[in-house]
Amino acid sequence: MRGHRASTSGQPTPVVLVTADPRRRAARTPWRRVLVGVVVAALLGGAVVATAGTLVSQRVAESFAVRDATADTAALARVVVEPALVDDVTSGDPDARAVARARLDDALAGESRAGSTVRLKLWGADGTVLWSDEPRLVGERFPLSDEDLAALRTDRSDAEVSDLDEPENRYERGHGPLLEAYQAVHTPSGEALLFEAYRPYDQVIARAADLRAAFAALAFGTVGVVLVLLVPLLLWLLVRIRTGQRLRERLLGRALDAEAAERRRLAGELHDGPVQDVAGLALSLGAVPETRAAAETLRQAVSALRTSMATIRPAAPGRDGLGAALDDACARARAAGVVTDVDVPEPLEASTAARTAVVRFVREAVWNAVKHADATRIRVSVRTDRGDLVVRVSDDGVGFDPRLLDGPAPAGHLGTTLLREVAEDTGGALLLRTAPGAGTAWELTLPARTESLR
Length: 454
What we know:
By secondary structure, the protein is an alpha+beta fold. The protein has 2 domains: 1-28 and 317-454, Histidine kinase-like ATPase, C-terminal domain (Heat Shock Protein 90), CATH 3.30.565.10; 36-209, PAS domain (Beta-Lactamase), CATH 3.30.450.20. 53% of the residues lie in helices and 17% in strands. It contains 10 helices and 12 strands. The protein has helices spanning 31-84, 94-114, 146-154, 201-286, 292-312, 317-320, 322-329, 331-335, 352-373, 415-426; strands spanning 4-5, 14-18, 119-123, 129-132, 157-161, 178-186, 192-200, 339-343, 377-385, 388-395, 429-434, 440-447. The longest helix is centred in the middle third of the chain and has 86 residues, at 201-286. The two termini are 18 Å apart. Mean pLDDT is 80; it is low at 1-9.
């Protein structure tokens, strides 16, 4: 990953080697908020679906209500009106017409008294009102609409909202919106007439409301049942995910514990075996004047071995504290004669993975300074900043040209690569300040609650 420079003045130009990537940050998952969010989202989604379905059902329910009113009018025409019709209803003889109209009055009297209709009319094909429960309309002629004429020809029933501004509907005004349903009927001789029934549109709206309420109950009930079945499934999935995360955390902890145990075992074997043997040999050789020089060499070897043992057997950051672990990480530098200062606030709230990443980073940065910087002092500091750990390792060494990092790492020089990997593995950021003759400062920023460390 190539670095880019951020301008400052009076000090080495900072070089950003790794930029913090929130997508790589494995922060602790707020499971309670996740659960509440999933349940709320499911409830809101279900409510939206049910509400949308209810609103869509408004027109469907109204259409069904109009269809029901049309069917009722057709049934009234077939069962009541048509059996009461006689050919004299269209006769030119006034007395004969009066008798025919009286038959219709008797047949439809019950319908008129029931109050389910506002007006009943029987039309001739020429637009003459042959009969009505409003006597003032009888005998008047009005032009029939195309829909009325089509109903006469095809013997079909239909319905529409009545236009109360038309003169033939003047006696229906004052009753509110009306639904005008019509059906063709036939006299005994087969002449086609048109029967119309005017019903309050409030009945249609009430019928639509009943249908809509039934649909809403079904929709919300269905969504409720789905949610009742879905929420336990979501809870089970969240529990499985959380269990998997805890298992991963335990495996990481066990891997770190196993690594620490193996390093302690190696350090113990070195201490109880070769170190003791060499120390005993040095003591024996030191008693003889001729071999004192060899004894001094052996004592130096023992000191080097003990320094390596301190490196192999580091303090555990979770058990012994991060400060003790970083002191051990600096042991090789002190053994090489470099003064090290470690500044770590205790107690420090951080996950095991974050602490381990800090120890890895400091160990590599300090050893790089010992090997390449010709430094006399190394400073290590750790501080917290809004949920992040900021780790800084600086030295007073020779420094280097940061442009050298743009090329491939030389063979055997993996320190900067390892430092970058620590930042990338935790989703953190890595900053470098250095220049020839100006020392070197590495700064790592990583989330304190990170749970990921490869």
